[in-house]
Large ribosomal subunit protein uL10
Amino acid sequence: MARPEKAAKVAELSEAFTNSAAVVLTEYRGLTVKDLQELRRSLGEDATYAVAKNTLAALAAKEAGIEGVEETLVGPTAFTFISGDIAKATKGLRDFAKAHPFLVIKGGVLEGKFLDAKAVLKLADLESREVLLSKMAGAMKGSLAKAAGTLAAPLSQGARLFGALQSKAAEDPSIIGGAGSAPAAETTNEDAATGDVPPADEAN
């Protein structure tokens, strides 16, 4: 490979290291072309599976500021550059490796830090983005329903209280200030004697 081509490849790999959500390094020796095609299809659009020379990958990792990758760059190495759901992609690699023992997970990179094979497999045990979003939506729905019930309870209680008060007021208007009819003014003997009885319209 000519020097300009090497430089372009290193730059491409370095950019992939930098822009990926995570990278998983695997050994693929023993896998057929058909196996590799099946692996790429199983990863879907969330990840890209690419083979690269170890020397170029080491230079690219160094340019991207990632340390510790060089130790795993022994033998044929392929890189899974994950752009989407990390848990989903690593689960796909783990399950494929179980069915195809020639695929060996060697390590990975997450947030610029190198991970050993055990740490990568732990990523596969995490819940996928879809599951987490579903749980979050369920929790939010439950919280909203609880909040709505809390707000509705005082309103319902207030309505019942108002209904009871209205019924009581119908029986005894005096329990509500200003409600009902005021008692008619009584005419005393003294008023009749002095002629101070108010006119009928004023008395009412």
